[in-house]
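User: quick one, fold this
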Amino acid sequence: MYPILLTIGAFHLYSFSVFIILAWALYSFLFWRSLRAEGVSEEHIFDTTFWATVGAFVASRLGFVAFHWDIFSPTLLKIPAIWVAPGLSFYSSFLAGVGISLVLARRYKMRLGWLLDAFAASIPLTIIIGSIASLLDGSEVGAPAHLPFAIRYVGHEGLRHPYQLYVILAMGLLGIGVGYLGRRAKKDRWAYGLVGIWFFLLLSALMFGLEFVKESNIYWKSLSVNQWVLIALFGQSFGVYYVLGGGKEHIRNGIHSIVRESRNAYRFMKEHVIGVQKRLTQSR
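Assistant:
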């Protein structure tokens, strides 16, 4: 862990702050580049990014406060004093930022598909940078583990899963996958937003699995709160895919294919059994 990058007198430059700002800057650039390629005006992109950032920050803080009320209940002045009682909620920030962006996109008459594809192009690398910030700061802790590559977190006993490294690897693979889908989408002329829908489906599935190797203090029905959020995100993404992304047709065709292949397999087995029975009868 390396929470402080630089100290000059009473001034401390925190690694978490530096990398979070870097992640935001990178996200803003990639988000802008993706939407500009579709002809969206700079003013609308700036407004969307600005208000989504403000909303994401406020929601991130309020989400942390809601799930750690015991820290803030003695004095509410700690809520805005992030330097006194630090803490942010990633998924509160994520959902608020995406939600505000979707609302503003409708207001500015942006195509929903453009926005979804812009998320797919900008979020994976952003999460990678954010995970580096989390690793250096030790703000997220892996579950106990006895593995050759397990690491130690400051303030926690024993060896633990390198959760942030898992996230970096998963987001790297997801980014490669999104890039491949993007190239295929252009070649095969997929509908706008289909790459973005697949991104959210894969993101929620990957992060859901990684939650099992992360320490969490808030559970409900044997799953962490984050996992329930991810289940909801996956369900919503699948709903959009089913209604708008051609999922209904794909699922119907898949079911028909399964039924057809099952019938063919049944006929083959039936003919095979009948043939065996005939040979046995003739041999007698």
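User: anything notable?
Assistant: The longest strand covers residues 4-8.
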